[in-house]
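WARN retry 2 of 3 for item q-0093 after timeout on previous attempt; input resubmitted unchanged.
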Amino acid sequence: MTNVTPVDVGVAVIELLPAIAFGLARERVQRAISGWPLAWRMVAPASLCLPYVVIAAFSHMLRWEWIALYCTLPVVIAWLLEQAAAADPEQRGNWRDAVILLALGLAVDLRWFDVAWPAGLRGLGNLLLVDAGLYGFLGIRRLTGTGFDFRFRWSDWKIGLRELVFFAPLVIGIGLALGFIHPHKNAAFFTSQAAQLALAVGRVLISWVGIFVFVAVLEELFFRAWVQNLLERRIGRHAALMVASVLFGLSHFNKRSAHFNWRYVLLATIAGIFYGRAWREQRRVPASAITHTFVDWLWYLWF
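OK item q-0093 returned
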């Protein structure tokens, strides 16, 4: 990543505010949004373009076409989901839900909008899209059963760690057999210097939090709270788990490779099954995000 500036940090914090608000006070936020006039509810998400404007202006790469896109896309999402809420009050899933999820998923996976952002800060573009989805699905559509609630429970940790214990031996065995993962010693933990060891432990803990906030929560929100949640209402729990897991696996087709990375797709699909199991037990994003974070974290440390 490029050198992070206070502006970058400030923008990241601002982009996290919608997730914090919905994660800690979803019903209160939903009531507030529903009290706005319809026109204001539709226009308000245009303000989500501001993080792009700030970052691009400070990086001297501001483009009017990107401002137009980041103003328009959240409004279109809100408008479509307002229609979906009226057409599908039982929330069994509407074609508009599918179109929005497909568009958001492809935009992130194929990096359609990455060129709008400075190198090293393209994750902020993905976070902006997540904010647009949060506003649309939770604020306008008021989708139920997402489990996007970060008032942690002991059961979140119990379920998340249980699925990790079930999953880790399986994925390590398959990964080693396929030659996809290669164990390595993390030298930072094999030092006799107390100060260096303390610094290493601090970095490791910070990396866990970073993976949780910027990777696991966002992916679990999309694939479990939105995709698997909506699929369950159409095709049932077991089929929804498998389909969502396959889609999660396919979203990794271009990771760590310039070509179709079938090994990564296979392992990510298996991982998706365990993440989906963690989420669906009590319909809690924190539970699946804990499993997801520990998997990525252990991979980062030892593989």
